[in-house]
Amino acid sequence: MTTASLLDVQRPSPFVARVFLNRPEVRNAFNETTIAELTRVFTELSADTQLRAIVLGGHGKAFCAGADLSWMRAMADFNWEQNRADAQALADMLWAVWRCPVPVVGRVHGDCYAGGVGLAAVCDVLVAAEGVNFCLSEARLGLLPGTISPYVIRAMGEQASRRYFVTAERFTAAQAHTMGFVHELCAAEALDTKVDQIVATLVANGPMATRACKKLVQDVAGLPLDATLRAETARRIADIRASDEGREGVQSFLNKRAPAWLAGPA
């Protein structure tokens, strides 16, 4: 895979990819090119059947400070159709990360504002350093967090979203951890160690089962507990039990040996 200048894409092993926003001079703020590159990279990673974990982070002093100022200046002169197309590109980028079949581990440090909160929200596991500040700052600018809202509300919860959408207040990593938005909170110097621990856990699991688990949460969350859902979840269990990976996993457990997917490059 080629590495774009606005993104640093690393492959430390066939099973792991690391994607870093690479605009440290503007605290990794978005512009239209960054959005297009993130969409492209996550589309490519989604097609990689060997991949078991993706780390998403940022170089420099911040994870992502939201929208780039020069991009915002250009948008100030957009008509409705141009604004609609621009917003659609951001919505499509967030969807590309959200629907990537590979679990995404967010590595958050420094500031995480506006669209950056949306990018954090589409991660499956979010690890943040102590001292991180989050802010959904759109209302302060006379705007709203439209394209990021479906993901932020799911990740943060309706009650917390109601407050921070309308007040545009900053909230700390500790507050984000308390509300369940951040899964793991650690000292800044321990951030990479914690991320690596989670990645190692993902790599050790059944690759197809892990992907199926990610999709299960996305598909089942919010659905009514009715006969259709009961039948669908039963079908999914039967499918994976009958799969080669499912059979291998059960046999390795019963025979007290390592499963076949742990063989090969680490």
Name the descriptors:
alpha/beta; 2-enoyl-CoA Hydratase, Chain A, domain 1; six-stranded mixed β-sheet; 48% helix; Lyase 2-enoyl-coa Hydratase, Chain  A, domain 2; 266 residues
Describe the protein's topology.
Elements: E1 7-13, E2 16-21, H1 32-46, E3 53-58, H2 69-75, H3 80-98, E4 104-108, E5 111-113, H4 115-121, E6 125-129, E7 133-135, H5 149-156, H6 158-167, E8 170-172, H7 173-178, E9 184-186, H8 191-204, H9 207-220, H10 227-242, H11 244-254
Helix pairs in contact: 1-3, 4-5, 5-6
Description:
The protein has 266 residues and is of the alpha/beta class. It has two domains: 7-202, 2-enoyl-CoA Hydratase, Chain A, domain 1 (Alpha-Beta Complex), CATH 3.90.226; 206-262, Lyase 2-enoyl-coa Hydratase, Chain  A, domain 2 (Orthogonal Bundle). Helices cover 48% and strands 15% of the residues. The protein has eleven helices and nine strands. Strands 1-2-3-4-6-9 form a six-stranded mixed sheet, sandwiched between helices. A three-stranded mixed sheet has the order 5-7-8. Helix 1 (32-46) links the parallel strand 2 and strand 3. Helix 1 runs parallel beside helix 3, helix 4 crosses helix 5 and helix 5 (149-156) packs across helix 6. The longest helix is centred in the middle third of the chain and has 19 residues, at 80-98. It is globular, with a radius of gyration of 19 Å. The model has no long low-confidence stretch (mean pLDDT 94).
